[in-house]
């Protein structure tokens, strides 16, 4: 104890001086990380804004795509109807033709 | 907590006058620093717990216990010797202090003689300290010698004596060390020319200190007077500790800040993840819709193509129909008016008339 008494004002002072830079170092590192993290948060916030705009666009795109699909469906149906009409017309024309051809013949021979 | 016991003890001491002849030193010590003593008692009680029972024994035996006749007079001798040595040391220390002060004063005189003197005195003082410690150790050996004769109370007195002496020497050595230390500090501040000498001095101190320290550790365990010193040194340490605590607190704050930032980031990223999921879902829907609409449009295109083909077929059928109608209509007329010869000629002529009309029709239709 007697030896540690005179060294008491000494060694802890040294220790504190040696420890101060360490803590200072850690403090600095923490400050640096805090700065970086704040930067990161800003970046993430920007990313979030961009993502939201992208999301809006994607939403509208989805709606448009649905509308387009419906439109395509309608077009297809219209085309199908047209096709059907044409077919009906053809069939009708052929039938009429056959009637026109067959009926006079039948009439003629009877 | 301990107050009651100590008061009890004091009352015992007062009520039972000691045979003062042998224990002068002890009683002196008791009267000189009573506070110290009480602290000792508290410590002892805490440490051993035997004192409590012994005191109770005292209370029970009532008087027999405090006689302490067989206590050897060597205790007194040793204590007086030690006191003498301590007084010498104190003188030396004061002289050394004077020398230090003289040496520290700035001047152009050659101080090597003084330095030598200082070194010598240092040596003397440390050696006398060593002596004192040896003497204190002797008390232990004496105690061992008379172990059979000694009662627990005598042991107690022995311990107290030792502790008190140790405390005194501690105080002195502390003073001495402080002096030395300050001197070295001053030297280091003022003088950069003789660092070697100081180093030598430091080493010497250290090597000497190891011996003293090893003993003083024992003394510390035994003597609770050191508690005070510890408190004093802890006063210095406390500042340090507080400062460190502050620093650590700051660091902890920083870490907490970082952790909160990370949490914030986490929540933000999670939010954005949900947004991303929605975007993904929307885009997948878009893909599915587009694929289906593409299929339908292809079908519609097929239908459209087919419809053009159908239009052509329709046209041709219409043409054939009209032609057939014309062919069928003609013979009736010919049946009524002509029989054989003019039929083909008349067939062609009326057929030619509507023909351009029908030829015109497809052109317009197309």
UniProtKB/TrEMBL annotation, chain A:
Q: Where are the transmembrane segments?
A: 86-107
GO cellular component terms, alphabetically, are:
cytoplasm; endomembrane system; membrane
Q: Where does the UniProt annotation locate this protein? A: Endomembrane system
Q: What is one GO biological process annotated to this record?
A: vesicle-mediated transport
Q: Which UniProt keywords apply?
A: Coiled coil, Membrane, Protein transport, Receptor, Transmembrane, Transmembrane helix, Transport
Q: Where is this region: Disordered?
A: 1-23
Topology in the lipid bilayer: Single-pass type IV membrane protein
Matches recorded under SUPFAM superfamilies: SNARE fusion complex
Q: What is its main location?
A: membrane
Domain V-SNARE coiled-coil homology as annotated: residue spans: 22-82
Please report which protein family the annotation says this sequence is part of: Belongs to the synaptobrevin family.
Q: What is this protein called?
A: Vesicle membrane receptor protein (V-SNARE)
This chain's source organism reads: Komagataella phaffii (strain ATCC 76273 / CBS 7435 / CECT 11047 / NRRL Y-11430 / Wegner 21-1) (Yeast)
TrEMBL record, chain B:
Q: Name one GO molecular function term.
A: SNARE binding
Which InterPro entries does UniProt cross-reference here? SNARE, Syntaxin, Syntaxin/epimorphin_CS, T_SNARE_dom
Residue ranges for the region (Disordered) are 336-366
Residues covered by the T-SNARE coiled-coil homology domain: 238-300
Q: Which CDD domains match?
A: SNARE_syntaxin16
Gene Ontology terms, cellular component aspect? Answer: endosome membrane; Golgi membrane; SNARE complex; trans-Golgi network
Q: Which residues cross the membrane?
A: 312-329
**Name of this protein:** t-SNARE coiled-coil homology domain-containing protein
Q: Which organism is it from?
A: Komagataella phaffii (strain GS115 / ATCC 20864) (Yeast)
């Amino acid at each position: 104890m007697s030896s540690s008494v005179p060294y008491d004002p000494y060694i802890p002072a040294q220790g504190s001086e040696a420890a101060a830079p360490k803590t200072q170092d850690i403090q600095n590192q923490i400050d640096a990380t805090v700065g970086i993290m704040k930067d990161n948060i800003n970046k993430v916030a920007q990313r979030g804004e961009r993502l939201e705009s992208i999301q809006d666009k994607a939403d509208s795109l989805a709606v448009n795509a649905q509308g387009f699909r419906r439109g395509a469906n309608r077009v297809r149906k219209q085309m199908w109807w047209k096709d059907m009409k044409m077919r009906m017309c053809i069939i009708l024309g052929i039938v009429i033709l056959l009637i026109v051809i067959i009926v006079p013949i039948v009439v003629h021979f009877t | 907590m301990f107050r009651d016991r100590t008061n009890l003890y004091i009352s015992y001491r007062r009520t039972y006058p000691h045979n003062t002849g042998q224990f002068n030193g002890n009683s002196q010590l008791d009267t000189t620093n009573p506070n110290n003593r009480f602290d000792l008692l508290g410590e002892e009680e805490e440490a051993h717990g035997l004192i409590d029972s012994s005191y109770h024994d005292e209370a029970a035996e009532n008087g027999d216990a405090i006689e302490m006749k067989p206590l050897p007079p060597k205790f007194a001798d040793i204590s007086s010797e030690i006191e003498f040595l301590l007084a010498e040391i104190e003188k030396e220390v004061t002289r050394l202090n004077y020398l230090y002060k003289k040496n520290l004063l700035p001047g152009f005189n050659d101080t090597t003689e003084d330095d030598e003197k200082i070194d010598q005195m240092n040596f003397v003082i440390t050696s006398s300290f060593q002596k004192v410690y040896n003497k204190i150790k002797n008390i232990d050996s004496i105690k061992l010698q008379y172990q059979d004769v000694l009662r627990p109370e005598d042991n107690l007195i022995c311990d107290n004596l030792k502790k008190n002496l140790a405390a005194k020497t501690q105080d002195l050595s502390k003073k001495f060390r402080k002096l030395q230390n300050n001197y070295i500090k001053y030297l280091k501040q003022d003088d950069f020319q003789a660092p070697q000498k100081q180093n030598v001095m430091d080493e010497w101190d250290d090597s000497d200190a190891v011996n003293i320290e090893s003993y003083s550790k024992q003394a510390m365990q035994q003597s609770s007077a050191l508690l005070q010193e510890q408190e004093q040194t802890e006063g210095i340490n406390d500042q340090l500790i507080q400062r460190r605590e502050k620093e650590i607190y700051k660091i902890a704050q920083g870490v907490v800040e970082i952790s909160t930032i990370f949490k914030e980031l986490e929540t933000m990223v999670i939010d954005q993840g949900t947004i991303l999921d929605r975007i993904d879902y929307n885009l997948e829907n878009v893909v599915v819709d587009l694929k289906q609409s593409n299929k339908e449009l292809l079908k519609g295109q097929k239908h459209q193509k087919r419809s053009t083909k159908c239009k052509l077929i329709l046209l041709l059928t219409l043409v054939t129909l009209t032609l057939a109608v014309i062919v069928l209509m003609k013979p009736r007329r010919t049946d009524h008016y002509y029989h054989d010869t003019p039929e083909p000629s008349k067939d062609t002529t009326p057929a030619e008339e509507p023909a351009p009309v029908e030829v015109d029709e497809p052109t317009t239709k197309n």
